[in-house]
Amino acid sequence: MVLTQSQTQDVQGLLENFVTSNDVISQIAASVAKIVEVNLQKTFANQNQIIAQMQGEISQLKVENGALSSENKALKAELDVLQQYSRRNNVRILGIKETVNENLDEIVINLFKSKLNVNLEIDHIDRMHRVGKPTSGSSRQIIVKFTSYRYRKLVFDNKKLLKGTGIRIAEDLTKTRLMLLKEAISRYPRENVWSFDGNIWVNTGGKKILIRSVAEFPKSVK
To answer: How confident is the model at residue 1 (pLDDT cuts 50, 70, 90)?
Structure first.
């Protein structure tokens, strides 16, 4: 059906009146706003759910990380104990001048006999050698491993006889315990700090305290 010009104009007028009607526009705007609001609420709800899930996962990861950290510390502590125990027959000798083609067996045995009054023979020693890389102008430490703890104790108990000689005998400590010993020396008078059987001790206020970690240091006596 073909509309006449007059009919076409009437239809256009009706459409214009419909589109420009305030009531219709308000209804359309309200409907659109409602749809947008519903969609936004759904989006926010989904996002909140995702955030809550992520927060839960993060909390769980923190718990697991804390457990792993504690387990790691415990394993390190156990390893340190084992490493120190493997050194229980060792001592380190500091202050013996290093020379080319030196005979350490003879030097060390003579030191024990002449300075410490300990009559040991080479058969009482498992092995000995200097440690570290040679450095011009300095002498490396000598590490001595005895065949039994009893021989090691004879030497270590008499190390005080070396006072004034420039030679010193010390325990063969693990890296962790050596750092702890140095930390103790930095906090307390040197005469109040010592190691015995791989353990670090401090004397504060006349009380001997075993130190296993930095957290266990009592108030400084300096």
So the answer is: low
Considering Cα of 167, then 171, then 174, then 177, what sign does the dihedral take? negative
d(C-alpha 73, C-alpha 79), whole Å: 10
Nearest-5° angle of CA 69, CA 219, CA 200?
60
- How many CB atoms within 10 Å of residue 187? 19
Measured distance CA(128)–CA(194) in Å, rounded: 24
Rounded Cα–Cα distance for residues 81 and 198 (Å): 9
What does each C-alpha distance from 108 to 104, 105, 117 come to in angstroms? 6, 6, 12
pTM of the model: 0.68
d(CA 14, CA 18): 6
